Amino acid sequence: MTVYKIRTNGAAVLHKPAEMVTVFDKKLKSLVKNLWDTQRACREPKAIGLAAPQIGKSVRVAVVAAHGFVEALINPRITGRVGKQETLKEGCLSLPGKVARVLRFIGIKVEWQDVEGRPREAYLEGLAAQAVQHELDHLDGKLV
């Protein structure tokens, strides 16, 4: 089990777009395992996702566990938005102790690759959609 220190605001890796994953190998699988280990070890009880830049790795990889959606997302992208945007409260492991109000779509279609490089897609609503949008912000170099 490898648990990384979460990077906080001010770390350069959090403020630049992450690189696309092009190699699907043991190193990628290890990164995904480390993301899950780190996310689960967080003392924040509402930690439902974690992006690779938050542990200092500038690659487009995130893990999300929210309302039955439990996935490692490699090179994720939103391909559809459903409904209106709502202002929601969000915390962030990289901004400890802070809560922000963020506009999020209530439903999204997301496409990604799994750790083997196979294409995947899902339509998400509610907390799962919010969590994926939050993690994609991290992959794009944005903090809430």
Structure description:
The protein is an alpha+beta fold. It has helices at 26-41, 126-139, and strands spanning 49-51, 61-66, 69-91, 99-113, 119-125. The protein has one domain (12-139): Peptide deformylase (Peptide Deformylase), CATH 3.90.45. The chain contains 2 helices and 5 strands, in the order αβββββα. It has a 5-stranded antiparallel beta sheet with strand order 1-2-3-4-5, with helices on both faces. The longest helix is centred in the first third of the chain and has 16 residues, at 26-41. It is globular, with a radius of gyration of 14 Å.
SSE diagram, text form:
Blueprint: H1 26-41, E1 49-51, E2 61-66, E3 69-91, E4 99-113, E5 119-125, H2 126-139
Antiparallel strand pairs: 1-2, 2-3, 3-4, 4-5
List keywords for this structure.
144 residues, globular, 5 strands, 5-stranded antiparallel sheet, alpha+beta
